[in-house]
Amino acid sequence: MIGYMICAAVWRDRKTYRRASLRDMAEAKVAEAATLVIVDTGPLVAYFNRRDQYHAWAVKCWSALFDPVVTCEAVISEAGFLLRDDGLEPGKLWHALERGVVRVDFDFGSQQADLLRLLRKYNDQPISVADACLVRMAELKARSTVFTTDEDFRFYRRHGRGVIPLIAPFAG
Question: Which residues are within 8 A (CB) of 172 and not within 5 positions of it... i.e. 6 or more apart?
Answer without folding.
Answer: 9, 16, 17, 18, 19
